Amino acid sequence: MKINHLFKGIYSGKKVFITGHTGFKGSWLSLWLSLLGADVTGFSLKPEYAPDHFSLLNIKMTSIIGDIRNKEILFDAIHAFNPDIVFHLAAQPLVRKSYNIPHETFETNIMGTVYMLEACRNSKSIKAIINITSDKCYENKDLQYSFKESDPVGGFDPYSASKGCAELITSSYRNSFFNIRDYGKEHDVLLASCRAGNVIGGGDWSEDRLIPDIVRSASKKEIINIRNPHAVRPWQHVLEPLSGYLLLGQKLLEGKPEFAEAWNFGPRNEDNISVKEVAEIAKLFWDDINYNQETALSNNQPHESSYLTLDCSKANGKLNWNEVWNIETAIEKTINWYKLFYSKNEISTENDIADYIEEATNKDLVWTSLPDYCSFNKTLKPINRQGRNMPL
Ligand SMILES: NC(=O)c1ccc[n+]([C@@H]2O[C@H](COP(=O)([O-])OP(=O)(O)OC[C@H]3O[C@@H](n4cnc5c(N)ncnc54)[C@H](O)[C@@H]3O)[C@@H](O)[C@H]2O)c1
């Protein structure tokens, strides 16, 4: 797949450091970046679940196994690599687990973020940092309201509070050390943060997440109890926020300080649906999916917000970022990924990336346009994985 031209060709040959590369989103991002021609180094704990998407992908990159709570090891890894850009995804990302291990959640998500930013502050090579926080960073009062980037951060459970803190830390580092007022004079770093919704896609085997729970049960022909069936979330295919992170990274690497701020990446309003609706759509694509709605059980569960949606008009307007797949397609792609894996042991991650790029190109999304150095030569058409010319 020849895709170096995407995102104005900015990632081709760039040194990209990703924390959390062994995780669900990090493994998809690492593969996409390596296909874009980037020189990728990842820093994470060992993959936690088996099977494990990162190892299955066999990506051409450097993988460092380390703990972001260990400041020295993280500093050494960043300074030895001299990256151009850092995507920070490493975190304890599960709400329910955060009730069991609050201390570890706060240490990883708060101090891990501080150590990452300190390492970047001491680097001479880094031009851009993107800190991946969460839609759960907002102070959520369970109102039928879509959060804007300017809304206050908060957090009821330890995970959400840790991501609210990660946002405050990002904003403090941007004000204190990477202030855009001093950009190009006292420092050369642009720092942004991203708050994406609930992402789905192949290769996630985390505990207590809807899709992994559903597909694990379907693969064993078991019935699953789904919690909080009426809770509404901003569901998206994992490639949607990743295209947002990559587009934002492009702008920062191009040296545009007006993009060094916080960004929401989420679905269109009509794709904010309930847990139950996601399960119903998933069943359309895999008959072995069977579930009970555990409303009684839900009453004994730790608190999780019942309504969470994002207002993404800033990303749509200022960044010109738009979604490619609606919720039905996102669920179909996801369920098909797991069906293929469980039935034939095949991994369709790269095919999904190719399909996504092809549809984004057909929709003429901004990140698919040719870089300026190609526009003089119309014969330089990128080709897709079937060897067909992709539309310019
Ligand atoms: N998946 C979602 O729906 C979602 C939604 C919003 C935000 N996020 C955020 O996106 C990021 C990635 O989430 P994910 O779903 O891929 O999670 P994941 O659990 O699949 O991956 C987490 C990654 O962080 C690494 N990690 C955890 N603790 C670490 C430590 N102490 N030191 C080094 N590495 C450590 C893990 O090894 C793994 O690589 C997280 O910051 C998460 O909060 C995820």
In brief:
By secondary structure, the protein is α/β, with parallel strands linked by helices. The protein has helices at residues 24-35, 53-57, 71-81, 95-100, 102-121, 158-176, 210-219, 239-253, 275-285, 295-298, 313-317, 327-344, 349-362, 372-375; strands spanning 15-19, 39-44, 62-65, 85-88, 128-132, 146-147, 190-196, 198-200, 223-226, 232-237, 262-265, 272-274, 290-293, 309-310. Nicotinamide-adenine-dinucleotide binds next to α1, α5 and β8.
Describe this structure in words.
- The longest helix is centred in the first third of the chain and has 20 residues, at 102-121.
- This protein has one domain (13-368): 3-Layer(aba) Sandwich (Rossmann fold), CATH 3.40.50.
- By secondary structure, it is of the alpha/beta class.
- The two termini are 16 Å apart.
- It is globular, with a radius of gyration of 20 Å.
- It has helices at 24-35, 53-57, 71-81, 95-100, 102-121, 158-176, 210-219, 239-253, 275-285, 295-298, 313-317, 327-344, 349-362, 372-375, and strands spanning 15-19, 39-44, 62-65, 85-88, 128-132, 146-147, 190-196, 198-200, 223-226, 232-237, 262-265, 272-274, 290-293, 309-310.
- α3 runs parallel beside α5 (102-121), α5 runs parallel beside α6 and α9 packs across α12 (327-344).
- The strands form four sheets. It has a seven-stranded parallel beta sheet with strand order 3-2-1-4-5-7-11, sandwiched between helices. Strands 8-10-12 form a three-stranded mixed beta sheet.
- 39% of the residues lie in helices and 15% in strands.
- The chain has 14 helices and 14 strands.
- Residues 20, 22-26, 44-45, 67-69, 89-93, 108, 112, 132, 134-135, 196, 198-199, 206 line the site of nicotinamide-adenine-dinucleotide.
